[in-house]
Backbone:
């Protein structure tokens, strides 16, 4: 089982702390090229350094380079996290990803397809035609699509493994529960996105939208005993926002096929967000025959003897 995997390898508290700090540091260092690019472009275009939205709205900005540099830190972060899991924790890579013996690609593709269909249909069915514009530009779009297809899955998988894999397993060692780590990670994941433009428009609406999405991902991960479906859902969500319908003043400002604004896209939030997440959960619940009792199953492997360590309650392996 996914939560049982937390007991594999070496689990002294300092190993968890060092891995978290190293991953965050790697992600932070990976942003240096983006920061340099932003300041260079602001200087070139004569834009106030404090006016990032002005840069994003400028038609002379190379949005593909901006996106590429914005996604590269996740490559460094994922590599660091996985190296520390294997080398420091002495855990198999799959242990923080799934409770199965191998990654289930069919589940990942199912998550991708279901969520992409739901958000595509709901977006174009609910948004009035005046709320978005067609802007397809082949010379900008095809490089964008290549970047998105390669790096968006890495970005979203990094977040899934770090939050709903590594951190949720670590909290389960302390709390001996599935629900408590699930709820904590759900709130933490929504909270770390408070810097996104959606929150500037309406803090409560933005937070509830992210909280609904985070709740869906958390419950799917726990109920399905792995991150395959959540990786698919998350990738579809960001791929749609990058390549199909982006917000010119949003988190992803790209040369997508259609463009809108944060205000227009949030017009039906958080109600549509909650409804979509509920619909997706119901579909997967029926598709995979999940049991509610899964949420209350023990996280400690049956028959396992473990000495009590000072912070985690887990003996060093």
Residues:
């Amino acid at each position: 089982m996914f939560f049982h995997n937390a007991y594999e390898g070496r689990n002294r508290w300092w190993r968890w702390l060092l891995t978290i700090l190293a991953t965050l540091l790697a992600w932070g260092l990976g942003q240096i090229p983006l920061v340099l690019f932003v300041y260079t472009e602001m200087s070139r275009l004569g834009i106030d350094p404090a006016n990032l939205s002005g840069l994003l709205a400028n038609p002379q900005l190379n949005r593909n380079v901006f996106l590429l540099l914005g996604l590269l830190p996740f490559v460094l972060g994922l590599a660091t996290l996985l190296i520390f899991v294997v080398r420091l924790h002495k855990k198999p890579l799959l242990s923080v990803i799934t409770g199965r013996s191998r990654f289930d690609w069919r589940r990942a593709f199912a998550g991708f397809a279901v969520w992409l269909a739901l958000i595509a249909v709901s977006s174009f069915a609910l948004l009035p035609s005046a709320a978005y514009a067609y802007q397809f530009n082949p010379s900008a779009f095809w490089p964008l699509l290549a970047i998105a297809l390669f790096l968006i899955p890495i970005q979203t998988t990094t977040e899934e493994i770090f939050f709903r894999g590594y951190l949720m397993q670590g909290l389960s060692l302390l709390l001996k529960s599935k629900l408590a780590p699930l709820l904590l990670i759900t709130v933490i994941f929504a909270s770390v996105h408070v810097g996104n433009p959606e929150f500037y428009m309406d803090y409560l609406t933005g937070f509830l939208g992210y909280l609904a999405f985070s709740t869906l991902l958390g419950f799917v991960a726990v109920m399905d005993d792995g991150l395959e479906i959540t990786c698919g859902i998350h990738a579809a969500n960001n791929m749609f926002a990058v390549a199909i319908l982006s917000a010119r003043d949003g988190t992803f400002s790209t040369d997508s096929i259609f463009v809108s604004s944060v205000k227009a896209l949030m017009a039906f939030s958080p109600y549509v967000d909650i409804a979509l997440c509920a619909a997706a959960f119901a579909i997967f619940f029926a598709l995979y025959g999940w049991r509610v009792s899964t949420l209350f199953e023990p996280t400690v492997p049956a028959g396992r003897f473990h000495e009590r360590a000072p912070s985690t309650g887990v003996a060093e392996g």
